[in-house]
Amino acid sequence: MIKLNHINFNYENSTGACGLHDINLSINKGEVLLLCGESGCGKTTLTRIINGLIPHYYWGNLTGDILINGKNVSKIPLYETAEMVGSVFQNPRSQFFNVDTTSELAFGCENMGLPAEIINNRINRIAGDLRLKDLLGRSIFALSGGQKQKIACGSVAALEPDVFVLDEPSSNLDAEATRELKNLITLWKSQGKTIIIAEHRLHYLWELADRVVYMDKGRIVKTFSGTAFSRLPKSELDHMGLRVLNLESLFNAPLSNFQTSATNEMLSLYDFHHSYPRCHATLNIANASLPKQAVVAIIGENGAGKTTFARCLCGFEKKCPGTLYDEGACFQGKDRLKNCFMVMQDVNHQLFTESVFDELAISMENEDNDEVLNILESLDLLSLKDLHPMSLSGGQKQRVAIACAVASRRPLILFDEPTSGLDLKHMHQVAENFRQLSEMGKTQFVITHDPELILAACTHVLHLQEGKIQKIYPLDRSGTYEMLSFFIDPESIIQKKAV
Amino acid sequence: MDNKLQAKDLINVGIFTAIYFAVFFATGMIGFIPVLMLVVPFLCPLVAGIPFMLFLTRVNKFGMVTLMGISLSLLMLLTGHPWICVPFAIVPSLAADLILKSGNYSNWGSMRIGYIVFSEWILGLFIPLFFMRDSYFAGLREGYGDVYTDTLMAVTPTWVFFLIIGMIALGALSGAYLGKSALKKHFKRAGIV
Amino acid sequence: MDLSAFAGNCSARLWLDPRTKLIMLLVVNIVLIGGGHSGVSTVIRPLLALLPLLLLLAEYKFKPAALYFIFIASAMAAETFLVSRTQGVLNLIIVIAAGLLSRFVPVLVMGYYMVTTTKISEFVAAMERLHLPPQIIIPFSVMLRFFPTVAEEKAAISDAMRMRGIRIGGKNSGAIIEYRIVPLLMSSVKIGEELSAAALTRGLGKPVRRTNICRVGFGPIDYGFIIFTLSLFFAWIFY
């Protein structure tokens, strides 16, 4: 039983994260509570109140009581809360303390001082329950994001808490890993655990939620029962800024009117082969034609070679022998490095200077202040031009990176998971950026797990499988069907048909 | 304010030691270009000033800088550096900690001096070439006689040792300024500090 | 040396307790760097220099072992035979080169062996067995765990720099240190903060004695190595 009474909170040095205003909530044992709302609505803050990170780790002004099983979480030390509340976070890369999986599973129990024998038993049981057996004893740095997230869940489960708090756990996961996450939450629910999830991607969760809390600007605006929430019409969800509940419903969505300026010109690729040592993911594309000036979504399972393909296309992989032909002009790896721009999944890695203006200026062959201002204007960044790029929000940083791509006048722009962890509004903003870039005649490639984004902004799909191009197709009526079928769990379609 | 080190502080020490050492090590790599080897004692503390000054923004309790020195010394030991590195990392870092504490970890004057003192741990890497040579030479003398030993002593004169101390101090002083300006130019504006 | 080597997860072929390795490392370190060219040292030093060779062979690292053997054997042979028979500059070069090689190479190889054959969790377990306080163990283990993260971040930033055309010799070479270090610090600090938060919610810092599931313990081979090493060490000290 969790009780929040009149919680008010403000971060000490607020950097974008939202505080909370008069939150009253009680959560019953065994309940699955879904927290939703736009970015910055305070749902992450609320999870931090429940797991005690506020006020013990993130400082600020907290008033009100938070009671879990009668204990006041804001008064007891974090290691006591840890026995009652297990937390899984958004970023799979930053939440492990060890370098090998088995130690990570044992970590929490070791901290509690449990005897080694009991810990080993727990690890065995959890590895069975969560199907982690083949991940045991491996280096965490060699795991995919989805596998890391599974280990994080296992490590939390080993402490056997009554309450699980998950903060956007699916942000960096692909379709398959998201399905596994869903199974895991189902398992915990069946064990009678109390589960609190803050999440943007709702399609995998709505069936599980007993109650849905919609937040806005640090307040609880509405509370729905699970069933009432699932009946909300699409228009209502759009209005609330929430992602789609039901991927199947996208089958009926109108075709995107964004059927582009894509010409019939093609880019040709030859000899895109690459493999990594000690890694089974390889890329094997002898030749292919890709539509020029289109927005091509790159989809495929984990390990299908999406990222490798993008890295080779960009010329990051020096050993990849591939060549790109564009109207007779031939681009080797090094030339492509100068003609492609990749907007990375973590844009923090590609912003270097002390102001947005400088960031664009160093991207240009010859610095041209007027041109910089024009580009900033067109991407709605002009008011930010003197700020430090790292002080911006995630979406703004991404737009700065896009602006750099425009400033560098490169014809090919690649995006690596541009909408991971974004809400509806920001997803549409990304889609809008694609449109603008299309109008400038850029060719865009987008690695993504987000069918809503593909529908909103892409013109073609490039489906990779085991390092080979399985198919390239335009997003017409049948293309849309094919694309969605890839993302939707085949089982759930069969079930729907049976009903 | 609780003056005992919390788990959070200990983790911070580990993270910043890793960053500090990675930067230090990457800078030291230029020592493989023979001519530049001579400037390593200057350059390493210079560049590593940026992470160290950032580290100091997280330090407000006694012990964190000392623990950084201990972690560094253990790392040196395990990666096969002379054992003398261990006392030579612990003593300066402890002294630096005391100096920084006297300035409440925020006084710029004591931060400069503290970083200079801390940086002298680098000496531990050079020391066997100087002071331990006495035992080395004593052994040589027994084995091979005075002539050889004296020539060898002449090649590694003691003043080089003081030159290295001076280079480290100068590098660290410049590093402190470099770090301070990076804090102002980047980290404060980015909202990290 | 590759700092992320610590992350290596391949188990050693000849498993030794980290404490055994530590004892060997320390003794090799003290005796070989401490030096000595007369009396019993002439026997003890070569014997101890054999340790790294044995360990390399036990790990099937034949090429490094062969290289090591050639280096050390020639350095020690030069110290013993050539130094007294040469003169002038040649003598000087031999003294310095052989002196440095015979002192520092065995220790470095021991370090290499230590780092490539020991998992971080084994280190931590051994440190806990040695009753080191958590104030030392936690920072040290976090540091080791964080090296691969720094390496990952560095690789990503280097890629971005290459793509943006920021390189030595380019038009931005003046600011290259800044461009390289500042983003690295920014993202490492952010990851570090999230790491702390995650570790705290898993109960790190609870004032109880931590347990460890990692297998550490001395076996017969450990005792063999320890007795061999320590007897040489005491012989070196007392004679």
UniProtKB/TrEMBL annotation, chain A:
SUPFAM superfamilies in the cross-refs: P-loop containing nucleoside triphosphate hydrolases
Record flagged with keyword Acyltransferase: no
Keyword terms of this UniProt record: ATP-binding, Cell membrane, Membrane, Nucleotide-binding, Repeat, Translocase, Transport
Residue ranges of every copy of the ABC transporter domain listed in the record: 2-242, 267-491
Task performed by this protein: Probably part of an ABC transporter complex. Responsible for energy coupling to the transport system.
Family per similarity comment: Belongs to the ABC transporter superfamily.
GO annotation, cellular component aspect: ATP-binding cassette (ABC) transporter complex
GO molecular function, one term: ATPase-coupled transmembrane transporter activity
Domain of life: Bacteria
Protein name listed in UniProt: ABC transporter
Membrane topology: Peripheral membrane protein
Chief subcellular location: membrane
Stored PANTHER family: ABC TRANSPORTER ATP-BINDING COMPONENT, HEAVY METAL TRANSPORTER
Pfam families in alphabetical order: ABC_tran (PF00005)
Entry's localization field: Cell membrane
Automatic annotation (TrEMBL), chain B:
One Pfam short name: Trep_Strep
UniProt keyword terms in alphabetical order: Membrane, Transmembrane, Transmembrane helix
Transmembrane regions: 12-30, 36-55, 112-131, 159-179
Chain segments annotated as coiled-coil in the UniProt record: none
The name this protein goes by in its record: Membrane protein
NCBIfam families referenced in this protein's UniProt entry, alphabetically: Trep_Strep
Automatic annotation (TrEMBL), chain C:
Topology within the bilayer: Multi-pass membrane protein
Alphabetical UniProt keywords: Cell membrane, Membrane, Transmembrane, Transmembrane helix
Cellular component, GO, one term: plasma membrane
Positions of transmembrane segments: 22-44, 65-83, 89-113, 216-238
Protein localization: Membrane
InterPro entries to which the protein is assigned, alphabetical: ABC/ECF_trnsptr_transmembrane, ECF_transporter_component
PANTHER family: SLL0384 PROTEIN
Protein name: Membrane protein
Species of origin: Acetobacterium bakii
